[in-house]
Amino acid sequence: MSINNYDAILLSSFGGPEGQEDVIPFLKNVTHGRGIPEERLEEVAHHYRHFGGVSPINEQNRQLKAALEAELARREIDLPVYWGNRNWAPYFPEAVQEAYNNGHTRLLGLVTSAYTSYSGVGQYREDFEKCLAETGLTEVVSIDRIREFFDHPGFINPLVEGVKRAVSDLAAQGVSDGVRIVFVTHSIPNSAANESGPEFGEGGAYVAQHLAAAQAISDRAAPDIPWSLVYQSRSGDPRIPWLEPDINDAIEEMGAESVRGIVIVPFGFVSDHMEVLWDLDNEAIETAENNNIRAIRVPTPGIHPEFVSGLIDLVMERVNGTPVEERPALTPLGPWPDHPTVGAPHPGGIAPSAMAAS
């Protein structure tokens, strides 16, 4: 059975290793084509090996898939959910082939990336094109995707809740003055950020969306507390400029400014990726302690009921063809536009000529 041109949901994610033997093959998948030497991969591998070689992301996607299925059942919506990854099993071709074998040919991608960037938009489009080519289904299966949801209430509100709780917890610990909110996201090369939407100025759509989301969260959670946008997890050639400041450098500067408490908001991630566990819960917290700053990290949305419900709302606005002016958005940038269909054209899809920024 299909609903308004869609047969099924394709939960689309990055993927992660689930054992020590998976770590290097996974990192080779992530860095495929970049010529990264194996010794450099080993340097990154120790982040995963510290946690037994297991990234939390696959288990979180299993939980998210179950939560989405429960919400669909609660609303009596007949759309099965398939799950595919870019870099580790289950891979996209397996998921799309399974959907096709079950008679589902019009898929709606639910991409676990809230912002516009090559990794979050353009590369998923390439993933979809590649998997359809590999399975020989380009002419019979179509894949659309929900829009970027950086300013959707379902994404913003769980973070607002987390910031309010963290500020309250700091106060309970005797830290009410000298508090800062530190919004943190994944750094990317400056050139890639600019290419995400040159019309938005320096940093492109990637930086503009993060600034807008940070303002929306701050306004609702703690409007009187100063905030800043910082970056984490820089990698690649050190000669290439990436978005700055790094969160550890920013925390050290705050220490020199007599900041006493910080609320770390990992709003660049929808769940606790390895970068959150290692770079924030380990390194950033240690940097804060070394600078006599009390730090609390806000939870990622994960399977927060409001986040799960918001994702299904985003699915249903595509299913129902909700007009743009009726789509919820909490910043002046939104609602972000839809993207063109990949694969076989269908009546509910968008022609490539309507390509959105990616």
Description of the molecule:
There is one protein chain. The protein is an alpha/beta fold. It has eleven helices and nine strands. It has helices at residues 23-30, 38-49, 57-74, 92-101, 118-135, 153-172, 190-195, 204-221, 247-256, 274-290, 305-319; strands at 8-13, 81-85, 106-111, 142-145, 179-186, 227-232, 261-265, 294-297, 342-343. The strands form two sheets. It has a five-stranded mixed β-sheet, with helices on both faces. A four-stranded parallel β-sheet has the order 6-5-7-8, with helices on both faces. Helix 10 (274-290) links the parallel strand 7 (261-265) and strand 8 (294-297). Helix 3 packs across helix 11 (305-319), helix 6 packs across helix 8 (204-221) and helix 6 packs antiparallel against helix 11. The longest helix has 20 residues, at 153-172. The two termini are 32 Å apart.
